[in-house]
Amino acid sequence: MSGFCSIKSPSNKVEDPQDCDDFAAGGYWGVLINGGSQQEATNAYSSLYWACINNGGKSDTTTTIKP
Amino acid sequence: MKLTYLFIFFNSFLLFGQNLQVTYKASYNGTSVKEGIELAKKNNIPNGQLQGFKYYLQKVKDDIENQKIILNTIGDDQFILSLPSSVDSDYSLVRSIAPVSLGLYDYLYSKGANIIIGVNDLNDHAVLYDDKQATWLVTSESKNILGFECFKATIKYKQSLPRQFARDHVEAWFAPSINKRGGPIVYTNLPGLILEVKVRNATITASNIETGENKVLKETTKQIITEFESHKKATLVGKAIEERIKK
Prior knowledge:
The complex is a heterodimer. Chain A has helices at about 20-35, 40-55. Chain A is mostly helical. The model of chain A is unreliable at about 1-15 (pLDDT under 50). In chain B, about 30% of the residues lie in helices and about 35% in strands. In chain B, a hairpin with a 3-residue loop joins strand 2 (about 70-75) and strand 3 (about 80). Chain B has helices at about 1-15, 35-40, 45-65, 100, 160-165, 225-245; strands at about 20-30, 70-75, 80, 105-110, 115-120, 125-130, 135-145, 150-155, 170-175, 195-200, 200-210, 225. Chain B is α+β, with helices and mostly antiparallel strands. Mean pLDDT of chain B is about 80; it is low at about 85-90. Chain B has a 12-stranded mixed beta sheet with strand order 7-8-9-10-11-1-2-3-4-5-6-12. The longest helix of chain B has 20 residues, at about 45-65. Chain B is globular and about 55 Å long.
């Protein structure tokens, strides 16, 4: 288990996402596929990426993307 | 029937000339996690990204349903929208994604009849919305919200604005008896306060109206850019993200 398991919601616990790039990308596509705006998608990416990093997840990239 | 008229008259009388504070609550009516997974499969989202995809769908629902929005009117033409802290303990390390999903800002105010400025703490710029670009089709369909008779209006844009991508079918319910501009998102140009707005993934409805304190409108000192410029910026960031995802 990675430290990421501390991020959770009551009905959708997220377990062991080692790769924050993939995790955040899932959120990015989640917005666009559901008809959301580009702004919403980039914000979701940023939000999920830093949530993952802050909870012990890992990333191959070092670039900071600001919303 | 007489009682209804009396009630509406009494409400209007109470609100005349006073500044109001309106609390709105949102309910999610977007894609469920189950429907989202089907969509993800159809769109060939890689398995590695599915976890984030599912997490986003659940989080956006939870965040939207925890989001409160406060509107303070200033006179009849101006208003301020603000968001009380909405991050619940289960997402304590994650900023709420409800504001951006709903098109909300940390602080939004009207400047003049149709000009609205949205300010987010995280951004180095503020965004200007010009509601002269939008026209409303007011219908005779009505319903009661918090004791006020409200009429349904739908929006039409004079040109293709970025927000149209996300809000093709905006539906607003406004109360002509409350002679104030404003509502829970960026829309303002209706003859009465907007008490409910239905957008792509949520319905935002007034849950309380009371006499408000005299708020002072604080204008932003950030650079103000248009909705188009904001959309361009987001697109550039989006391209950078997509490049990053491909690597």
